[in-house]
User: Fold this.
Amino acid sequence: MKGSLFAGTAALVLIASGAFAQDQAGREEYMIACAGCHGESAMGDGPLARVLNIATPDLTHMAASSADGEFPFQYAVWMIDGRNVIRAHGAEMPVWGNRFQASATSERGESAEMIARGRILSLVYYLEAIQQ
Ligand code: HEC
Assistant:
């Protein structure tokens, strides 16, 4: 009993620190690639938002404004990736899937697709962590 309680606690600590590591990588990526439009606060108020033709969405209320109150994980992946969604005419959001894939370099044999998906996922974990 004591042993399993300890194992459970250790697992929780591991999960928590794993989540932190992902959020940190996602945060760095976010500040470089996304904050210009969506804002450092992710509230849609970046310096570039003003020059776009359409409103830049607030990314901190994606859970609160979804039908079931849950963070729309799959939707966020699709929107960031952009390769499998049909964009409305005049959409401004860059297709990150293509960009991340094109800029991927690996010395250990990961494919460009693996690297692009990892970057997209770390961004989604970050967005999930900053929901209000
Ligand atoms: C050039 C400005 C710009 C940049 C840079 C940008 N976005 Fe966007 N983003 C938008 C706009 C405008 C929309 C609204 C939909 C559209 O135009 O496609 C949007 C939509 C979204 C959505 C859907 C939000 C919703 O509630 O429907 C997500 C998620 C998102 N962006 C995440 C990101 C992430 C993560 C990055 C960085 C990798 C990023 N965006 C970079 C302009 C930008």
